[in-house]
Amino acid sequence: MAKSVQSVLRAASMLRLMAAEVEPVTLKDVATGLGLAKATAHGLLQTLVEVGFVRQDEAGRYLISADLPELHSDQLDLNELRSIGLNWTDALAARTGESARLAAFRDGAMVVAHHVFRSRPTRQRLQIGSALPVHATALGRVLLAFDPGAARSIQGRELERFTSRTITDRTRLMAGLPAVREQGWSFTLGEDEPGLAAIAAPVRDRGGYVIAAVEVHGSADDVCERRDQPRAEHVAEVVRAARRISALVGREGRSP
Amino acid sequence: MAKSVQSVLRAASMLRLMAAEVEPVTLKDVATGLGLAKATAHGLLQTLVEVGFVRQDEAGRYLISADLPELHSDQLDLNELRSIGLNWTDALAARTGESARLAAFRDGAMVVAHHVFRSRPTRQRLQIGSALPVHATALGRVLLAFDPGAARSIQGRELERFTSRTITDRTRLMAGLPAVREQGWSFTLGEDEPGLAAIAAPVRDRGGYVIAAVEVHGSADDVCERRDQPRAEHVAEVVRAARRISALVGREGRSP
DNA sequence: GCCGGCGTTCGGCATCGCCGAACGCCGGAC
DNA sequence: GTCCGGCGTTCGGCGATGCCGAACGCCGGC
């Protein structure tokens, strides 16, 4: 296959990110959302402004100039996402011996697209199609770090406490996100269920837009190597599975 | 002003070129329309296919995937074009001592956006808003060379003869267009009016899309230095004016 | 059957995109 | 009122990416 033009992929992903938002987005939202330097995002955004696809409000934030239906219809539905990601999610579960999930942010909630569970006596049930709390899961941390819609979904809302370890203070929750962006994965322990540890990583489109997250989870004894630290080989497997799924996104020819 | 990203400008201009066509366009149309190598146009088009903005039919031609209203509304109307181009068109007339015109292809016809005429006893009248024949003018040659819509407008049509020098054979007309693309200007002599010579050059947007053409015209004695050859300094002035007008396109902030 | 034109691919080169650093502005905190 | 941190913007250096010439394979017309 011929090589794609990276700048155009990125510009399209910026449009997609902005199309997913009702409110104007900041330069920072776009840069962090696509994993780009501010200057890079700025250059691309200014070009999109110049060609009329995007405009900038008087506060310096960006919003899409016109409704581009193609950007909305282009969004993978959960079944497409599941079919793209199920092999690697299954493989991830097999290689780590833990349960695995693939989830995306849709219509104001994080929803499970695929779930592989292992024959372990932890409290498990098939969750495909279910919504999960973004503030109390590793998957949710990833989406909060990269998806401005996810971040907005918890604004002005009381964060529900599931365990004694659930972070319900928004400032404290947000304070951990730069580290997630930096290292490219997130880790939670006992926040949605006592004794449950999880590691998640972002799934991106060709332009860098985070369209989903994939994770493994299991009991703390299995997922952690030292207290409060995830096993390095599990982290590597999650990041690898996320990259593999990302590589498949946008590869199949889109149906007309 | 910050630098723009050339690839994104080009991609947007490709969309704009395709939005102006009802029929699918060929790779060649896009490449010649934007003045790019085939391989370059191919890479950008494949990326646009990948992000879903363009699709390719089974014959290998390209068409826009979805109606993007922004691309249509973005087209400069003739008044905007006139206000952008009038200073340089006036200056062109002054520097060459000839009449000058700025024209664009709109709704199936080439229309004059601005006209500066000199106090010469040739048959002149203000033509702003008038349609001109694309096959018999230097302006028209430019648009035929670069705008697939202009080329399509004369397909299946009898070309009107204005003088004994008017080219009415479409194959012969088209045969001269590669030279126009190569040298970046066109020249006609006595095709729309006896004894009238004209030199025209393309006005492009930042992505390379030809949105208009600018020309000087006058009697053959004044515009030609040798029989059937335009004066080199007039050619240079026209090309320069076209570049200057091009540089202004897309510079002013677009109104929301 | 042949040939020309088109879409596609490849690889080398240098231009352009990328991004770190710095700047200026602005709003919030004190 | 002042100070400071965060944001959008700009600049310039570097190397990665985009660009394009050349070549290829396919297909349709003669």
Automatic annotation (TrEMBL), chains A, B:
It comes from the Bacteria. The keyword DNA-binding applies. PROSITE patterns: HTH_ICLR, ICLR_ED. SUPFAM superfamilies: GAF domain-like (SSF55781), Winged helix' DNA-binding domain (SSF46785). Residues 5-66 form the HTH iclR-type domain. InterPro entries: GAF-like_dom_sf, HTH_MetabolicPath_Reg, Tscrpt_reg_IclR_C, Tscrpt_reg_IclR_N, WH-like_DNA-bd_sf, WH_DNA-bd_sf. Keywords: DNA-binding, Glycerol metabolism, Transcription, Transcription regulation. Pfam families: HTH_IclR, IclR_C. GO terms for molecular function: DNA binding; DNA-binding transcription factor activity. This is Glycerol operon regulatory protein. It comes from Flexivirga caeni.
